[in-house]
Amino acid sequence: MRxxxxxxxxxxxxxxxxxxxxxxxxVAGDTVVKAETHVGxxxxxxxxxxxxxxxxxxxxxxxxICVPEPDPNEENLARAIEEIEGxxxxxxxxxxxxxxxELSRLAAYMLWMGGQAGTxxxxxxxxxxxxxxxxxxxxxxELTGGRIYHMYIWAGGVRRDLPxxxxxxxxxxxDYLESRLPEYDKLFFENAIFQKRAKGVGIIDKxxxxxxxxxxxxxxxxxxxxxxxxxxxxxxxDKLDFVVPTHEGGDVWSRAMVxxxxxxxxxxxxxxxxxxxxxxxxxxxxxxxxxWYVPEGDxxxxxxxxxxxxxxYAVSDGGLKPRRxxxxxxxxVHGVSLLEKILVGANISDVAFIMNSLGVCPPEIER
Length: 367
Description:
Layout: E1 5-10, E2 22-28, E3 31-38, H1 46-50, H2 58-62, H3 71-85, H4 91-118, H5 124-144, E4 153-154, E5 157-158, H6 166-189, H7 192-198, H8 206-212, H9 216-220, H10 228-231, H11 252-276, E6 297-305, E7 308-316, E8 324-328, H12 331-342, H13 351-358, H14 362-365
Antiparallel strand pairs: 1-2, 2-3, 4-5, 6-7, 7-8
Helix pairs in contact: 4-5, 4-11, 5-6, 6-11
């Protein structure tokens, strides 16, 4: 006798969901037979908003595209404008940008770790990781004035230079976070509950990963080494020494191990940046932001966010406002087409668990 199929709605307010999105589930017993992603519960339509704002006014808008990790959006928009203008960026500013991007990556991974553990019922981990993440947020607040949205990276460099003693504070924070990683290993990554829940769950087929457009930790968790920082270096990543972790398996466990190892790499990168950072200018000043005409042209740039390859295509018609800005991020693939595929056959209890492992920012889907 065939089991009766029931429709369930997970989200948008469920604490295990990666942001304000909802997944409509059709289940038979406790097994998912169909999944359908629904978004639009948070801010949206950023690309069209930018067409009605000046170039400088667009920077506060793009931060909202991914709240847990806003800085790659700023860096992408800034670099796209710089490419259209042919504007040179001071070397010091490039090093500062890399430091910001890696701090942002660490903060995003700390938040992911809390969410991933929370969906497995390991509630001590989010208490720790969200608290430790605040030390990074404190650095952002001192440097930019904002804890979450920074508007610090902009065309021509960065908004202000590092305050006196700031580099030492960053290094002390890195020392602290590095000392905490073994504790997270014992509490979370080596936890038998997490391992049993994560291994063999939410598998992404390695042969299909590239075909589907999977990027970031989900792709590297399939054993495929792809990272924009290495493959197509930007800023000063080509002057830094780091490796790209990969892990075979394609499951939640593999994606978790990739992120765990990347945290160590980010700490190392930040230390190298501070050690190698030159003196000099931090900003190649743009004209009056209220009267800033970007020359006619277009550019596509991309960065490696905590969620994977993240690109911006910007078009200028020579005016005060962007003619068009298109954001190409991993959230649409990971949160819609991929998620709807790999949830089929999953147990209901694993749905939020799998979603967290993909690192989705819902506003990026409805950008």
